[in-house]
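Listing S7. Sequence submitted for prediction.
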Amino acid sequence: MTGVEGTTRKELVTKFVYLAIAVVISLLATYPWPRPSDPLTLPEERRQLDELALQELDGGTWRLSEHRGQVVLLNYWATWCGPCRAETPGLVKIAKDTKGVAVVGVSVDHGDVALVREFVKEMKVGYPIAIPERVSQFEQGLAGVPTTILIDAKGRVAKVYVGETREKEFRKDVAKLQAESGGAS
């Protein structure tokens, strides 16, 4: 029996099977599988951050130096970023229930601060949100958003996460840093 343009049913089924296999392989290749986590930078190799002062959404100033002795998660994000929206609830939980940890969000949105306020309200963000200067050197060095910088209790960069990161990974690394400094977990 022949079908379209002289092709047999068997040939059509074979083509369909090959197409289905190609689609499955494509889906598997593009699925956002959990990526292996990079280890924390060894304490002796960590880079000390200079004083960091960020203008907060509410008008105050967030200063890194005021958080010495705490582990800090410095999260760069944007209201239009899907992965940022996905990781924010985990950061909200960490900020709320993890002793000895400071979380600060830095919005890289440029323009309407009302959008940032709306995001903060919608996501129930209880930690400080900062708005950097338009040409912040730190912001210009970002590979993308979200980017989160994990800072140890001495103010040194222990790890940089680029892309959406799961709450579980943040918690694991925070616990390691707190164990290093003998802090709360």
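Caption to Listing S7: primary sequence and predicted structure tokens for the chain studied. The beta strands are 47-48, 53-55, 61-63, 71-77, 101-107, 129-130, 147-151, 156-162. The mean pLDDT is 86.
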